[in-house]
Write a structure and sequence with these properties.
Structural class: mainly beta
Distance between the termini: 41 Å
Helix content: under 10%
Number of strands: 7
Number of domains: 1
CATH superfamily: Gamma-glutamyl cyclotransferase-like
Order of helices and strands: EEEEHEEE
CATH class: Alpha Beta
CATH architecture: Roll
Amino acid sequence: MILFYNLFEISEENNMKHLVFTYGTLMKGQAAYQRFGESEFVGDATLYDYAIYEVGEYPAAIPLKGFKVEGEVYRISDEQLPLFDKYEDEGDLYIRKTVTVELSNGTKLDTYFYEYNKDVSALELRKPEGKWTPVRKPMFI
């Protein structure tokens, strides 16, 4: 059975009401993990029909049919959301969008997601399985 949850119907316990799909430096074990305080791990997830391009110190995901991006879903607070936006340079380097991801148990969730907002023509496309690992240690964190 596949369950579907709407981003705005998830429990708002402890003001942790925003779901965000992370696929780079904000994932567990990466340089910026929990940079903005505690967040609730919801699960590993996949975003279909997007691909990861290699920027170097961070990944860039854009729509591309037939590819997928592997990442993690977290529940964050109202206070954390603008911090995520600032970190991702929302409105310039990335655009925050709402997308549907699939958790490893088959549950589908609407989550926030930061889509790369620059030209990728000179960047290297990652493997179709879309799991990002840093090429070199980030200098900006």
